[in-house]
Amino acid sequence: MTEAEALIALNQLPLTGPVKVRRLLEGFGNAVNTLKQSYPSLQRIQGIGPEAAKLISEWQDYTDPAEELRLAKERNIQILTQEDEAYPLALRDAYDAPVVLYVWGNLLEHDLHSVGIVGSRKLTHYGREAARKFAFQLASAGLTIISGLARGIDTAAHEGAVAANGRTIGVLGSGLMQIYPPENLALAEKIADGQGAIISEFPLQTSPDRKTFPQRNRIVAHWSRALLVVECPSRSGSLITANFALEAGRQIYAVPGPIDRPTSGGCHDLIREGAILVTDGSQILEDFSHLKFSTPKNEEPRPIENFIDLGPDENAVLKALSGSDQAIDEIVEKTKLSPHQVSVILMKMELRNLVASLPGQRFTRKG
Predict the structure, then answer these.
(1) pLDDT tier at 318 (50, 70, 90 boundaries)?
(2) For residue 59, what are the domain limits?
(3) Mean pLDDT of the chain
(4) What span, in angstroms and rounded, lies between the C-alpha atoms of 175 and 212?
(5) Same structural domain, 168 and 62
């Protein structure tokens, strides 16, 4: 048995969460050795009670890692452990990091730079349009949108990122063979087919329940560099995510809503408690322009724009702006691009905080 198979087996056992598995690995050195332990030995580990010790000592009766790997391969799903280079750095640093991560789609180093967007399942038209707007703006600027693929605000956030042809990650509270809600299967397929990934820490055939959703929320909070709450009542699962984000030291943003609607209560509570009120994605991007994040290869921290892939047309516009500010028609002449292309590129690069607009429809390069 490989170490990865042993970790998959431990993750399939219902009474062994990430913290317990971490203690087992610290106590016995690795997952393979853990599965060889006797019932009495397992009970000597802090937090491993009689029931969990029994399950682990009899793991072959409850798990089948080989079958799990077969199913994953059949469905083009990766199963990552913390030893894999593709395992997200933001999650690896968490004290309750997922034991394994199931990934449908692809993850990029660039996804380190992300904003979580969450809110109520019972959204209003105002909330839907706000979530789509923010997600579109942030994804257009090169940030990855993280959300839970749930009905309501989550769905709108993913849709906004997809509309911007940006990247988005859907974190499920179920296994990847139990996409929930089922009506979002088409959206999940579109995301996994080149615009991000659908991920879960749960075994493939896990059904969603009241316990799995809060567990999912902590992943959204830990992965996101900042969290935006768009619309939610004063009692909402989105506030659980916000609490996880605060514990992880993330910045919280909230969108204000009509004061006479219960759906605004949670956001207004967050604003009173110190969340930053925002009405446009550019306000979040301005904060991100000053942040630097460490990289998975332990290199020197780099500013966010170094993670944003620029195409040849965008590089041509940046080159045209070298030296002094330029009018749009001057940029058109230098780049040989159409006025429409230049206008779209300038808008996206302004959102990315790479260029700034000046009076008289002139633009200058920043930094």
Answers:
(1) confident
(2) 1-66
(3) 89
(4) 10
(5) no
